[in-house]
Amino acid sequence: MGQSEGRLQDQVAVVTGAAQGMGAAIAGRLATEGAKVVVSDINLQKVMDVAERINAAANSSTLAMRTDVTKEDEVAKMVEMAIEHYGTVHILVNNAGILYPTRIDNVTKAEWDEVLDVNLNGSFLCSKAVLPIMKENKFGRIVNMSSSAGRSVSTLGGVHYTAAKAGVLGLTRGMAKEVAPFGITVNAICPGLIDTEMARENCSPEQLRAYEESFPIPRLGTPDEVAQLIIFLATDAAYITGASIDINGGDLMM
Ligand SMILES: NC(=O)c1ccc[n+]([C@@H]2O[C@H](COP(=O)([O-])OP(=O)(O)OC[C@H]3O[C@@H](n4cnc5c(N)ncnc54)[C@H](O)[C@@H]3O)[C@@H](O)[C@H]2O)c1
């Protein structure tokens, strides 16, 4: 599909945690669909490499910046940069996340706070920062990255990860109800095991194979499959808000 035929032509999108994995795939799809994309991550070098790759592949002008989603001032700067470069923000994908497999007896207060901070508080801060411009536009699309962990219990992560991802679902529903009158939708994606660094770093190849064999669709999901679902939610064809959408090969049927 050429850039001029994209479903998100000239929409402005911000993706957090975009230096690898799903964030990078989501940013790539958004650019292919014609959006102007800001990719941000705590890892500047890697997110700059992602922007360069996307620009070469999609003939776009993706902008990379370092943003720690737990820092309110950095989040404000990210949104300011998007507005300065592209005039506005239509789409926000709250994708940044971290996971530790720590069992509860060993979860320190500091580790608990860190996991809640990145996965849940970061989504709150970034959403709050884009809402004024979305309200002004009377249009917006916010997609929050939860997990099967948020719907049930985490396969790989500890209690803090499950709690944070369940919190993301509550944040999604609460915001969705408040901002619907402004033409803004807010939805959450709940992936099962997706083939990214996060999954591979927390699971041996043997464990991953065993998980795959247990799924009704017996393989891991791909980052691009998640990206394609997000693209649909970002279009104005999606009469969907406040939803928690599973994408897990049938691992969790609710
Ligand atoms: N991979 C899976 O199986 C899976 C399943 C369900 C949900 N998820 C969720 O999907 C999202 C993406 O996961 P992934 O597998 O691509 O992970 P990943 O670890 O490959 O990528 C996460 C990115 O977030 C960035 N990041 C971490 N802390 C940050 C911070 N404070 N500010 C900004 N960026 C930060 C990292 O640098 C990294 O680039 C996460 O929210 C994750 O919890 C992943």
How would you describe this protein?
The protein has 254 residues and is α/β, with parallel strands linked by helices. It has one domain (3-244): Rossmann fold (3-Layer(aba) Sandwich), CATH 3.40.50.720. It contains nine helices and seven strands. The chain has a seven-stranded parallel beta sheet, with helices on both faces. Strand 1 (12-15), helix 1 (21-32) and strand 2 form a beta-alpha-beta unit. Helix 1 packs across helix 9, helix 3 packs parallel to helix 4 and helix 4 runs parallel beside helix 6. The longest helix has 29 residues, at 109-137. It is globular, with a radius of gyration of 17 Å. The mean pLDDT is 97. The chain binds nicotinamide-adenine-dinucleotide.
Q: Which CATH class?
A: Alpha Beta
Low-confidence stretches: none
Total helix count? 9
Order of helices and strands: EHEHEHEHEHHEHHHE
Q: What is the rounded distance between the termini?
A: 34 Å
Q: Supply Rg.
A: 17 Å
In round numbers, the mean pLDDT is 97
* E-strand count: 7
CATH architecture group name: 3-Layer(aba) Sandwich
The helix content is: 40-55%
Q: Structural class of the helices, strands and pairings?
A: alpha/beta
The total number of structural domains is: 1
Which fold name corresponds to the CATH topology? Rossmann fold
Largest sheet: 7 strands, parallel
Trace the largest sheet across and list its strands.
3-2-1-4-5-6-7
